[in-house]
Every structure is written in structure tokens, then in C-alpha cells.
Amino acid sequence: MDLCQNARSEQVRLSAAKELVDRGHGPVVSRNASLNVTTTIEDVLDQLDAQEKQRAAAAAGQTIDVAPVPRIDGDEQC
Length: 78
Fold this sequence. Notes:
- By secondary structure, the chain is mainly α.
- The protein has one domain.
- The protein contains 3 helices and 2 strands, in the order αααββ.
- It is elongated and about 60 Å long.
- The termini are far apart.
């Protein structure tokens, strides 16, 4: 940390900062990396909505069942 802030050379400061980031978060992913994602943003939004409903019901003293909603053709909900 001291090298990031107090080194005389910009190159040393940059190298030390990169090392800290790599230790804390892992190396930066290459632009050419291919990712395989199985959860869509719609799935995440549905989960957040369900959590919000559950919290609101808990605050009101109610309990509700929040089961995942199956999708048909990837667009419509049952």
C-alpha cells in the first residue's frame, strides 16, 4: 500500500496498485473471454421482486409462499 501512495516512479505506483487489485479481486478478465451465463437478467429481477414481496409481507405480519415462476417459451410466465 505504501508503494501505491509514496513511490517516486509512476511505473512503480501503477505496478503496486495493479498487484493490490489482483490480490483483492483477481486479475481483470480479458476482453476476448467467453462467458457461459445461465441466469438471465429477467430471472434476477423476478428473484428481487419475490424478495421484495416477501419482505413487505413479513413487515405486515403475513407470510407468503414465493416459489419460482416457470417460464413457457422463454417469454411468458405461468
